[in-house]
Amino acid sequence: MSLKNNKVAVIGAGITGLTTAYELQKKGIKADIFERRSEPGGAVRSFKNGEWHYEYGPNTLLLKDKKVENFLYDLGLKKEIREANPDARKRFIVKDGNLVPLESSPVKFFTTPLLSAKAKLRLFAEPFVGRSNDDRQSVADFFEKRFGRELLDYAINPFVAGIYAGRPENLSAKYAFPALKELEEENGSVIAGALSRAFRNRKSEDKVKRRLISFKDGLTQLPEQIIKKLDNEIISEEVLVIRREITGWHIETESGKNGPYEKVILTVPLYKWTRDLVPANEQQLNRIKEVDHPPLSIIQLGFEKESIEHPLDGFGFLIPEVENRKILGGLFTSTLFENRAPENHHLLTIFTGGGRQPELAELQGDEMLNLVMDELKELLGVKADPVFKDHIYWPDSIPQYGLKHKELLDIFDEIEENNPGIYLAGNFRGGISVPDCIKNSIDLGKKLADELQQQA
């Protein structure tokens, strides 16, 4: 059924906006999509420079959900999926200046030099640690309480930097890692809960093969494919004002006024929220402006293979804060997927800054290159200058799910309740990963379609 009398606007053509518009279209509802950038897709964008192929933002998708897999297949991307090299299962943590593999096998884990014998034995006490009822418990407090300080320092701290570009002391356990917090709440133990959930998942019909993936031409194929499937063109204009009038919601751009719309899906990043864009009061906006988006630099470096001593036989490496290094870690990009570098060359993706050392993200030119090269010489045995380099700077990177994140979620709910027809969506709500955004957008699209069809 086509609902020609119902009008929907989507502000922002990142993964959240595009997925929501696509789900609406499947239900026969056309949405006007506004995007100020000339290249839709948000942070999901791939670059090609000769035979060097790399990502602007996210580098991989972890496919573990049937809903996301079906979405990709429905788009026609099944044959375009490229699974990561099996070597990518190996991940390294830096300890005492050396790259130590983080073993995933429980048996091998107890032989790893990454943790001391005392720290390994400490894991057996986890099922006997009491639950915490503190909604503001930090990720650091959660893991130190349940597993001990050493595991926090050498496993959790580096992974938080790799996922959020942040610090575990500043993130909410309940909202940054909800699945682990749920295991504690439901079972009294993360380990016991994980074992129980693994057993249940073996029988689940929604289970899919857990895969780390990209696409033939990089992750940019995802937004490009959604756009190809949409019937309407994206309106390449910046939205200046969103205002409710008697006839509905109206959107103003430089070229004029659009609308009225019954529903407006706002996917603009939090740091760009203003009173002109969001029907929020000054107190709400001030609280939203407090959300940290740490600066992050991504440095792409290409080398001849013979100039790196380390075999680069893994996903990459992460650096614990206690190691006092000047980079957060890096990906072995040309190991992860084929055709990312010329023959007989390696491509590395290195991260600096984040919540740990935000000032380092701002370095440019030779100053940044020298900092990174000094680290790579010590950690990977790099013996020559790069033959390729590029630098991507994110002044505002990933929204941090801080200790007061519940207050933020309450504000989002209040804004929507007080302004019927406004919907707030993006990686600031319900998960920061691309798969999280896809799942949330599918649900939102279906919800809006049901509401519009009931009104028809």
Concise synopsis of the structure shown:
It is built from 16 helices and 19 strands. It has 456 residues and is an alpha+beta fold. It has a 7-stranded mixed sheet with strand order 8-7-15-16-17-14-18. The chain has a 4-stranded parallel sheet with strand order 2-1-13-19.
Secondary structure: helix percent: 25-40%
Q: Ends: how far apart? A: 10 Å
User: CATH architecture of the domain at 8-44 and 220-279 and 419-455, please?
Assistant: 3-Layer(bba) Sandwich
The biggest beta sheet is recorded as: 7 strands, mixed
Number of strands: 19
The value of Rg in angstroms is 23 Å
Number of helices: 16
Q: Tell me, briefly, the overall form.
A: globular
- Low-pLDDT runs of 5+ residues are 1-5
Mean pLDDT reading: 93
CATH superfamily heading of the domain at 8-44 and 220-279 and 419-455: FAD/NAD(P)-binding domain
Relative strand content: 15-25%
* Highest-level CATH class of the domain at 8-44 and 220-279 and 419-455: Alpha Beta
CATH topology name of the domain at 8-44 and 220-279 and 419-455: FAD/NAD(P)-binding domain
What class would the helix/strand composition place it in? alpha+beta
Widest sheet, order of strands: 8-7-15-16-17-14-18
Protein architecture, described:
With 456 residues, this protein is an alpha+beta fold. Among the domains are: 8-44 and 220-279 and 419-455, FAD/NAD(P)-binding domain (3-Layer(bba) Sandwich); 105-201, protoporphyrinogen ix oxidase, domain 3, CATH 1.10.3110. 35% of the residues lie in helices and 21% in strands. The protein has 16 helices and 19 strands. It has helices at 15-26, 66-74, 106-109, 117-122, 139-147, 149-164, 173-176, 178-187, 190-201, 221-229, 282-289, 333-336, 358-361, 365-380, 405-418, 434-455, and strands spanning 8-11, 31-34, 46-49, 52-55, 61-63, 81-83, 91-95, 98-102, 211-215, 239-245, 248-253, 256-261, 263-266, 296-304, 316-318, 329-332, 345-353, 388-394, 422-424. A seven-stranded mixed sheet has the order 8-7-15-16-17-14-18. A four-stranded parallel sheet has the order 2-1-13-19. A hairpin with a 2-residue loop joins strand 11 and strand 12. Helix 1 packs parallel to helix 10, helix 1 (15-26) packs parallel to helix 16 and helix 8 (178-187) crosses helix 9 (190-201). The longest helix is centred in the C-terminal third of the chain and has 22 residues, at 434-455. The radius of gyration is 23 Å and the shape is globular. It starts with 7 loop residues before the first strand and ends with a helix.
